[in-house]
Amino acid sequence: MSYRSFYQQSIDDKEIFWQQQAGELHWDKAPVTILSKTEKGFYRWFADGEINISYLCLDHQVKNGRGDQIALIYDSPVTNTIQKFTYTALSGLVARFAGGLVTLGIGKGDTVVIYMPMIPQAVIAMLACARIGAIHSVVFGGFAPHELAMRIDDAHPKAIISASYGIEFEKKIPYKVLVDKAIDESVHKPLFRIYYEREEGYDVLNGPGEINFNQLLTADEVAYVPVLSTEPLYILYTSGTTGKPKGIIRDHGGYATALKFSMNHFYNAEPGDVFWAASDVGWVVGHSYIVYGPLLQGCTTILYEGKPVRTPDAGAFWRVIDAHKVKVMFTAPTAIRAIKKEDHEAALMGKYDLTSLQHLFLAGERCDPPTYYWIKDLLQIPVIDHWWQTETGWPMVGIMMGVEALPTKAGAAGLPVCGYEIHILSEEGEELEKGKEGYIAAKLPLPPGCLPTLWNNDDRFVAGYLQHFPGYYQTGDGGYIDEDGYCYIMGRVDDVINVSGHRLSTGEMEELVAAHPAVAECAVMGIADELRGQRPVALVVLKDGRDIEEMQLENELVGLIREKIGAIAYFRNAVIVKRLPKTRSGKILRKTIRQIVDGIDYITPSTIDDPIILLEIEEKIKARKIGIRFQSFV
Length: 634
Fold this sequence. Notes:
Helix content is 31%, strand content 24%. By secondary structure, the protein is an alpha/beta fold. The chain has 2 domains: 3-306 and 386-475, Rossmann fold (3-Layer(aba) Sandwich); 496-630, ANL, C-terminal domain (GMP Synthetase, Chain A, domain 3, 2-Layer Sandwich). The strands form 10 sheets. The protein has a 7-stranded mixed β-sheet, with helices on both faces. It has a 5-stranded parallel β-sheet with strand order 7-6-8-11-12, with helices on both faces. A hairpin with a 5-residue loop joins β1 (35-37) and β2 (43-45). The protein is globular, with a radius of gyration of 24 Å.
């Protein structure tokens, strides 16, 4: 079947299409109701079906003869460790750890926060929670205690699972001290704190509710718990424009259906293939395509604790592909740019056999054409940029390589994926003509696997995603569709920026910068960065009578953002200005400021209160040599 006809079937006959895809899974109770609505008008898939995604990932694979196949490869260049787990072994570990959680009184509907590095115990914890119907919320290990505390207060976990430390290149980042600080700050206090000791004696566990991870592995195995398709599997927090993180909910049945479908028809990965998503389990890519998707499909998945460079060099990715015979790889353009920067001639690539690699998928941010051509020319295989969000859980736009290997276009994210009816709308909600940039929206209902709502916050779900364009899901991104139907994603239309594939709120950063005693007013915006895609910069107006050197203020603000959000924000610059450019109604002209910093020609808005301010800012930016044209990211 061609892509066009297959895609159109998913739009014209939604219920029949997705009922067929759901039939690819083992259901404890097959759904009769395929698509329905709640009292609040929210769409639900397979509402009366019963299923368990952890069972599908493990026990079901063993029953189908994959017990001796490698399910998980843990490759850690930072610890010089390679460890392999068969489906049988991983299933046993998960069943025992689930049994350990049950002995603590954790079960169906309880929440558990997981704050761990890229180690097998993180995967075991996720699958164990899913096995007993507990809801896990993985928080990226690089987040600061304040960010973790906010998530604890929103999720109300019965337990938090962590480890001794994460490793950033050669530096150990102790996690227990970060967890302790977060719990001290949070209002909600988890009953249990479970730690995996990476080194014997590294952590002292003698506080109330502190338990050794391995102790729980001594419990008896427990059977999986069938749950309704619509029951929450996990909460994954993403930055919101208010600074308060949004808890994206993912269900069991719709998610399992979507992931199975995407592994087959989008990534073209077959059972037994080695699939590598070079991401982190703290992000949606890690959930969907390190843990659940590949195991659902009966693939071998790779858990990589390292970086694209400096662990030990820019040949790290090529080593992993060669060592484990990776067929399909998924990473972010940031990673490719980092490799390109350190090994522009790809001298290190020649040391490895990459003949196993058939497809390279890129996502997390827009892939700029120079990066696309560089890696495509080197690998001589299809390189597929694609686009999706934490909210959707799986691809929205791309080339469905398991259906029809259509041509890619540099700078384009591809064509709409089955189930997603993509539209470009004006501010007023009118459909825009081909080639004209506007708001990217998807017509409701969204396909299975997408967020059904936000954790304990239906009102915010409606306000943030459904209210602006009734009948549509508002993605928050802007872009256009060309004459061939290819989608071009041009970036956020709100104040969420994308730093190395991580969505971060500039609104939250503004709150922190504004809290500095010398700051009267500020604006934080994302500027172009050749390596990371975007990075934040602050313009600051000082309070009258406050005398502080710009470099001192910058250093203090850098430290504050690092403490409250984490190093991943890559906040490096704060510029003192006399005034912020605003419209007469008081709106800060962030887009114009970004254009100034990025060296893009701009038109002075007719609504500006004083055009001279823009000239003053431009001179200051030039003097500080901030922005991509000065290569200050190096």
